[in-house]
Amino acid sequence: MAISDWPLAERPRERLLAHGAAVLSDAELLAVFLRTGLPGKSAVELARELLTSVNGLAGLLACSENLQDIRGVGPAKKAQLAAVMEFAKRCLRDKLQSGGALTSPGAVRDYLRLTISAREHEVFVCLWLDAQHRVIACEELFRGTLTQTSVYPREIVKAGLKANAAAVIFAHNHPSGVAQPSQADELLTRNLKEALALVEVKVLDHFIVAGSQALSFAERGLL
Predict the structure, then answer these.
(1) What is the rounded CA–CA span in Å between residue 125 and residue 128?
(2) What is the CATH class of 101-216?
(3) Which H helix or E strand runs over 204?
(4) Residue 171: in which H helix or E strand, if any?
């Protein structure tokens, strides 16, 4: 049944206008954006299929290439989705740059989930901060395989000096979906902290991002 045949009070767009976007499910929000479905399939059903194919909102926000394989999502809709995703990333980045990473911990998590959670391979990212803990730059310095990434402290130190950073937040993703630090993760963090201390760059945190989770080393007392 097409959404236009639903009772007015049940249609996603009308519910959004009456009660706000927060009342809608992920699929309903995406359906409002898609506007139309396919013959025999409503926009909500198409949205559910799309979210399932890319492993939920995290996969969608990473603009997975799988989008082009979903019937009903052509080049125009794919371009619109990519633009919305990039808009969200830039809004979060601007919030971090103006407000400070430590005063906006939720924004840090959201930004990292948007940028690296759905990657199919491991990446290692540095958020370089100034003395007021505002973000100077976000750099993806290393890229690895499905299960590991080689990280070189010498290159991290060089990048920190180049950015003229006073502090840094590390992040890497676990494509396995398990946001738990390994012994290797903990050892690497200690080694990087010691190396950066020599050039007076403070390590504030290290996040492991997996799906919708973002585990903080600082909160776990691992720094």
Answers:
(1) 10
(2) alpha beta
(3) strand 202-210
(4) strand 167-173
Instruction: State the Cα–Cα distance between residues 223 and 221, nearest whole angstrom.
Output: 6
| Residue where the block lists tokens 């676990």 | 174
Average pLDDT, consecutive stretches of 10 residues, N- to C-terminus, the chain (223 residues)? 72 85 86 80 84 73 56 71 73 64 68 80 93 88 76 94 96 88 92 96 94 87 89
* Distance, CA of 71 to chain centre: 25
CA distance 84 to 78: 10
75-99 helix and 26-34 helix, angle to the nearest 10 degrees: 120
Tell me the CA end-to-end span of the chain in Å, nearest whole number: 54
pLDDT confidence of residue 201: 96
- In this structure, are strands 167-173 and 202-210 parallel, antiparallel, or unpaired? parallel
Q: Give the DSSP letter of residue 81.
A: H
The CA-based angle 52-39-51, given to 5 degrees, is 10
Report the phi/psi class of residue 162: left, alpha or beta, with left for phi > 0 and alpha for psi in -120 to 50: alpha
Contacts of 54 (CB under 8 A, 6+ apart): 60, 62, 64, 66, 67, 118
Domain borders along the chain are 3-87, 101-216
Edge-to-edge strand list for the sheet holding 135-143:
135-143, 123-129, 167-173, 202-210, 213-216
